[in-house]
User: What shape does this take?
Amino acid sequence: MPRIPYSIRCDDGPKARSRPRSDEAIAVATKHENVYIDTSAYTARRYPPALVDYMRGHGRAKVLFGTNYPMIMPDKCLADVDDLGLDAEARDLFLAGNAQRVFGLT
Assistant: This one.
């Protein structure tokens, strides 16, 4: 049976009721090989610290870049990515490699 990838968005904001918080999303993505976290609807400066730590470590292959276009333009979402402290491998996986692998685009 094929494993269908499933992407979740975490939200640590005060109005986050229907979405998991970052620690919950990280736990689910870590436990299930076909679950990934996407960053749609946020600019890099708003990523929760726990998500950034996950991206730097064992979650580097589990987070997909997203923009929420047309509400947030891609260039705005990319503006602060270099400030996240990701190494080159984690940055490349986040911005393209993970999506290419998950969706068979390579």
Q: What stands out?
A: The chain has a mean pLDDT of 86. The first helix runs from residue 22 to 31. The beta strands are 6-9, 35-38, 63-64. The first strand starts at residue 6 and ends at 9.
